[in-house]
C-alpha cells in the first residue's frame, strides 16, 4: 500500500536534482548493450539512498518459506508480490540479499530478470505502466544474506540460533529493522511502502512456526508442518515477524481494546524452559494494551503477543508479535514494543531520518505506564533529560544511519512529546495522540507532517514548542 504521492519536501527535491547531476557523468560510460541500463530509481531515503524503488507500490506479499534445518541459515522461498506502478516504470526493482533466484514469473508467464547480489537488487526486466498491477513470483533456495548492523555488534535480517544439543532445537527468526527483511525476502524494503502479507511456513514436524497476523491454516503431513498467517492490515517490511523453532504457545483471554471494543486475540511464545521470571511481564500484556489504548485509541491489529528469543539483540516491535530477547523481558520494554504497534507499525515512517517518530512515541509510552503504576513521572523525565545532557544531543531528524537508535531518537523524542503535553494539558494531548495514531496526519508520516498536524490540532504555540525540540541543536528547557 502506498498513499497517493504528496508534494515532496523542498529538501527532497534538492537532493534529487543533486543526484541527477552526479549521475550524469556515470551515465556517459554506460554499460555495453548486452547489459540493459538499470533505469530504476530508489525511494530516495535520506539515510539509505539505495533502498526501495520510487513509484512502486508493493501491495501484498504472498510468502512461502521452507526451512528443513532450523537453526541454520539455509532456506528456500517462493514469494508472489502484487505490485502497482504509480508512474510508468521501465522495470521492477526489489531489494534482495538472499540466495540465488532460480525462477521468475509475471502474471504466470516467464519473465527475464537479473540479480545483482552484491548490490542487493533483483530486477525484473519488464515495464509496468502507471496505474497497472502485476503479480511477480520469485523462487530461490540457498543461504540467507548476512547484513551487519552499521553500529551494533549483530547482524540484521534472518537470524539463526543453533541448537547446542543437536536435538532439533535450533531456531530462526526475522530481525528486519531497518533493512534486514531483504536478507530473506525480495521486498520493496522501505517503510514508506507498507503492505499486507500472507506467510506460509513449512518446517519439520514438531517445530513451531509463527508470523505476523492471524493463523488461518495448519497442515501436517508425516514429513512437514505447514502454517499460514494472514496480516491483513499493511505493515512496513521491517516489522514482519517470522519465528520458527521449539516454541511453546501460551494463550490468554482476548482483550477488548480493538475498534469499538472489539476483542484482540492474545498469545505469547516461549522457548522451552523459559523461567517464570522471564515469563512474568508477558502476563501483563492485557493490562498494557488497556493502558495504551486509553491514550492511543483502539489497538490497530486483531491479535497481539510476544515471542521470547534467546539471541542477544535489541527487542523489536514486529507486527502483532513483538520479538523479545530474554534480557529485554521487562514490563518497560514490553510497553515500548507494544506502543510501536501504533507508532511505527500502523502509522509508518516516510523516511528513516524520521525514526524518532517511532522511538519518541514508544519511549513516551514508558512514562504513561509509569503513571499507570502510580509512580511519579517526573524523575523518569528528569533522568531522560540528564542522559541527554551527559551524552550530548542533536536535532531530532537523523542525519546519519549511526543516529537511528541513539538517545536523541528515544529520550529527546519522548521529551518533545512531554513538553507538548505539559503545554496543552492531558485532554488535548490525548485527543492529539488518538487522532495521530488513527492516521489523521497520514498513514505514512515525516517530521514535517507531525509538526503541521500539531499546529493544526494543538495550535501554533504548541507547534513552536515542538519545533524547538525538533530543530534546536541544544536541549530546550526541561518540560
Ligand atoms: N526499534 C527497536 C526498539 O526500539 C530497536 C531496534 C531495531 C534497533 N533495530 C535496531 C536498535 C538496530 C539498534 C540497532 O524497540
Ligand atoms: Zn523502539
UniProtKB/TrEMBL annotation:
Gene3D superfamilies: Neutral Protease Domain 2, tricorn interacting facor f3 domain. Its cofactor is Zn(2+). It comes from the Bacteria. Its EC number is 3.4.11.2. PANTHER family: PROTEASE M1 ZINC METALLOPROTEASE, PUROMYCIN-SENSITIVE AMINOPEPTIDASE-RELATED. Residues 177-238 form the Aminopeptidase N-like N-terminal domain. It holds the Pfam family Peptidase_M1_N. Keywords: Aminopeptidase, Hydrolase, Metal-binding, Metalloprotease, Protease, Signal, Zinc. Belongs to the peptidase M1 family. Residues 322-461 form the Peptidase M1 membrane alanine aminopeptidase domain. This is Aminopeptidase N. The keyword Protease applies. The keyword Signal applies. Residues 1-33 form the signal peptide. It catalyses: Release of an N-terminal amino acid, Xaa-|-Yaa- from a peptide, amide or arylamide. Xaa is preferably Ala, but may be most amino acids including Pro (slow action). When a terminal hydrophobic residue is followed by a prolyl residue, the two may be released as an intact Xaa-Pro dipeptide.
